[in-house]
Design brief:
Layout (H helix, E strand, L loop, with lengths): L1 H19 L22 E7 L4 E10 L3 E10 L4 E7 L8 E7 L5 E8 L5 E8 L5 E6 L5 E7 L5 E7 L2 E7 L5 E6 L10 E6 L5 E7 L6 E7 L5 E7 L21
Antiparallel strand pairs: 1-2, 2-3, 3-4, 5-6, 6-7, 7-8, 9-10, 10-11, 11-12, 13-14, 14-15, 15-16
Length: 257
């Protein structure tokens, strides 16, 4: 996930500097994907640039038979479609990819919500090979939702989401086996309090979201070891003493979060 943010920063810098030195930014290409002719929503939530030089985007697309499908699309950097992957769940429901990252092992890792065999929504992590072949699917066993994923420098995958209005963090290895899961036991009045996760340069995991009662949620930052042990929890209650939301987290080169 760090690499995603680096690329975004580079694009912003180019967009600001180039006009100053006399070069106007020009549109290179636009890619659109329409799953069916039923005029339903097809929506992208996330994108990453792979070290193989290709783009990988995730979201959901409509299917007349299976409704909304968890979808990953790969493009070349010139905008040509390489492949489209859709996860066919156990039930016809609303399934979506919310976060995607490119692992240093050359595989793609995507997280979101998918229907399980119990017809409930589950925190889901899917691993794809660079050619779009499904390698494995992991689902957290109870009602839950996945929001963001990152590939750690230790070769493991870390993802954050929600279960029972609590922040849920899951770690799996590169073969899809669960290493551990962590639940922050202070619930939120909102249903999806776990929002962002990053693997720090110090080798620890940092998660952000929010927790607390109705009208008084607090920004919540949690640090975990790579073994899933809680190091500390930081809460911020803003001066208005009402809703405070944490939505994104980074680990800076100076060691600050």
């Amino acid at each position: 996930m760090n690499s995603n943010r680096n690329y975004i920063v580079i694009l912003i810098i180019f967009g600001v500097i180039l006009p100053i030195i006399g070069f106007a930014p020009t549109e290179r290409w636009v890619y659109r994907y329409s799953a069916t002719n039923s005029y339903r929503f097809d929506e992208a939530y996330c994108i990453t640039y792979g070290s193989d030089g290709n783009l990988y985007a995730g979201g959901y697309t409509w299917n007349d038979s299976t409704q909304y499908d968890f979808t990953v699309i790969s493009l070349t950097n010139s905008g040509s479609e390489r492949w489209v992957y859709k996860y066919l769940t156990f039930g016809n429901n609303w399934d979506a990819c919310f976060s995607i990252c490119y692992g240093t092992d050359g595989n793609i890792y995507a997280a979101g919500d998918c229907t399980g065999g119990d017809s409930a929504r589950h925190f889901t992590i899917i691993c794809l090979a660079p050619d779009g072949t499904e390698r494995w699917v992991y689902q957290y066993p109870v009602l839950s939702s996945g929001k963001e994923i990152c590939f750690g420098a230790d070769g493991n995958i870390y993802a954050v989401g929600n279960t029972a209005s609590k922040i849920l963090v899951v770690s799996v290895d590169s073969n899809g086996n669960e290493r551990w899961h962590y639940i922050y036991n202070t619930p939120s009045s909102e249903s999806d309090p776990g929002r962002s996760v990053v693997y720090g340069l110090d080798g620890n995991i940092y998660v952000v979201g929010y927790s607390g009662p109705v009208y008084n949620t607090d920004v919540t930052v949690i640090s975990l070891t790579t073994s899933g042990v809680e190091r500390w929890v930081y809460l911020y209650n803003g001066p208005g003493n009402i809703y405070d939301y944490g939505s994104d987290v980074i680990y800076a080169p100076d060691g600050c979060i």
